[in-house]
Design a protein that fits this description.
The structure is a single chain. The protein is mostly helical. It has one domain. 64% of the residues lie in helices and 0% in strands. It is built from four helices and no strands. It has helices at 6-23, 34-55, 64-79, 84-87. It is elongated, with a radius of gyration of 15 Å.
């Protein structure tokens, strides 16, 4: 494992935090949005590859811009409390 690179470790922790927050989202009494649930599912699948590749020693390097973008996305996910519909509300057609 690449445990000596702080960028790799930061990206793995950030991706894991995004995946766990999206997986633990629950809105009691809320309306089901099929597009938001599918989008959350796809985001979880995409971000879950990072910790798995790290665990199986197949994650070698990462660019600082990738880490920065993932930190921004992680902040947005936690600010929205895992609600993908709230994050992408701007993109939803009225």
């Amino acid at each position: 494992m690449v445990t000596s690179d702080p960028l790799v470790l930061t990206n793995v922790v950030t991706s894991t935090a995004i995946v766990l927050r999206l997986m633990m989202f629950r809105k009691p009494g809320g309306r089901h949005n099929w597009w938001a649930s599918w989008l959350a599912y796809l985001i979880i699948l995409a971000y879950a590859t990072v910790p798995f590749r790290f665990m199986f020693d197949f994650y070698f390097h990462v660019h600082w811009a990738t880490v920065l973008m993932n930190l921004i996305i992680c902040a947005a996910v936690f600010a929205a409390r895992g609600n993908v519909a709230r994050i992408f509300h701007v993109l939803r057609p009225e």
